[in-house]
Amino acid sequence: MVLIVLPIPGTETAGVLLLSTALAGGGAAINIYQAHQEGFADLEHIGPDVLTLVGGVFVGVWVRGATVASRGLQSSGLIGQVGADGLQGVLLAQTYLDEYQAILDDPNLLPRERTDRLAELFRSALVTGGLTYLSVHSSFGELRSLNGTNGADPAILARLRNPSEHIDLTPPATATHPIRPGQARIDQRIVSDVRHQPLLFRPKTAPRLRNGRLVWPRYQPPQSIEEAVARLARSREAIERHGVHYRYTDEQLRELATQPLSDTIGVRLMERRFRHRDSRNPTPEDLDEGWLGGAMEGSNGGIRYWSTTFEHIEDVDTDPRLIAQKVASDYHPGAEYTLVLFDLRLAREVMGNQSITPRFEDLAALLKRVAPSTYNKAATDYVMTPGYRETYRKLHEDIVKDNWKIKELLKAAADAGISGAELERLITRRLIHGQAGANEKFGGDGLTLNQNPDIDNQFGVVELFSFDANPLTLRELREAGVIEILDNVSEIGAR
Question: What is the 3-state secondary structure (H, E, C) of the chain?
Answer without folding.
Answer: CCEEEECCCCCCCCCCEECCCCCCCHHHHHHHHHHHHCCCCCHHHHHHHHHHHHHHHHCCCCEEEEEEECCCCCCEEEEEEEECCEEEEEEEEHHHHHHHHHHHHCCCCCHHHHHHHHHHHHHHHHHCCCEEEEEEECCHHHHHHHHCCCCCCHHHHHHHHCCCCEEECCCCCCCCCCCCCCCCEEECCCCCCHHHCCHHHCCCCCCEEECCEEECCCCCCCCCHHHHHHHHHHHHHHHHHHCCCCCCCHHHHHHHHCCCCCCCEEEEEEEHHHHECCCCCCCHHHECCCCCCEECCCCCCCEEEEEEEHHHCHHHCCCHHHHHHHHCCCCCCCCCEEEEEEEHHHHHHHHCEEEECCEHHHHHHHHHHHCCCCCCHHHHHHHCCHHHHHHHHHHHHHCHHHCCCHHHHHHHHHHCCCCHHHHHHHHHHHHHHHHHCCCCCCCCECEEECCCCCCCCCEEEEEEEEEECCCCCHHHHHHCCCEEEEEEECCCCCC
